[in-house]
Amino acid sequence: MIIERLSKEHLNIEKLLAILERELEVFDRGDRADYEVIHAVISYFEVYPEVYHHPQEDLVFAKLRGTRSGCCCEGRRSSSRTPERGPTFTPRRSGGRQRSRGT
């Protein structure tokens, strides 16, 4: 079922964020982070959510709203995208500090 798949994907996203957080902690300590892992996680977030995951969520939201086409939340993701860079991502860093890409 679609809800079960989306729930599993959310759990997987949490795991990927935890992996990224660990690599950032390694970097913050001054050690060498695994840049291949960081690149793989960021690459995933640049493509998968927008192309595969969010359209499935949109179908669920549309169904809940009783609409047949379009998303009840049109534009809800537009604020999280920049045309030149794709999705933005700001992981939490230890100590409550934030790291943002390109800003």
Write the layout of secondary structure elements.
Layout: H1 2-28, H2 35-65, E1 81-82, E2 86-87
Antiparallel strand pairs: 1-2
Helix pairs in contact: 1-2
What does this structure look like?
The protein has 103 residues and is mainly alpha-helical. The chain has one domain (2-86). Helices cover 56% and strands 4% of the residues. It contains 2 helices and 2 strands. It has helices at residues 2-28, 35-65; strands spanning 81-82, 86-87. Strands 1-2 form a two-stranded antiparallel sheet. A hairpin with a 3-residue loop joins strand 1 and strand 2 (86-87). The protein is elongated. The termini are far apart. Residues 76-103 have low confidence and may be disordered. Residues 72-103 are annotated as: Disordered.
* C-alpha end-to-end distance: 39 Å
Tally of alpha and pi helices? 2
Q: What is the typical, i.e. mean, pLDDT?
A: 76
| Cα shape | elongated
Low-pLDDT ranges = 76-103
Query: How do the strands line up in the largest sheet?
Result: 1-2
Q: Which structural class do the helices and strands define? A: mainly alpha
Could you tell me the strand content as a percent range?
under 5%
Number of domains: 1
Radius of gyration: 16 Å
The biggest beta sheet, please? 2 strands, antiparallel
- Secondary structure tally: strands: 2
* Topology as a string of helices (H) and strands (E): HHEE
Helix content: 55-70%
Protein name: Hemerythrin-like domain-containing protein
Organism: Bradyrhizobium barranii subsp. barranii
Region (Disordered): 72-103
Biased composition (Basic residues): 94-103
